[in-house]
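Sequence in, structure out.
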Amino acid sequence: AFAQKHRATFQVVLVSLDTDSDAATEYLSTKDSWLAVPWTDSTRRKTLTTRLSVQMIPQLSIVNGRTGAVISSWGRSAVMKNPDRCLDEWQEGGHGVSWWQLVRPW
């Protein structure tokens, strides 16, 4: 829903960690506007996983599309806890979510 709402300025690129191509293809088929690194390109998928410091799945890393700089690895939390402001904060170079937003239960 977030990616669809902000598709003019936000793009999801899936880097699948699935162990078989059928699972990756099936998952991607449920995501309308997502792009994906080809499952067969294991070298690129491993390189991106390392570069983005993937420590858990799913992880939504926010990357500047022009420079390739990693802005935040807290993308998933930002979309869930701060959906109205996270995109603006990312564009300003912020994490998109504060510690307070992460720890509050509501």
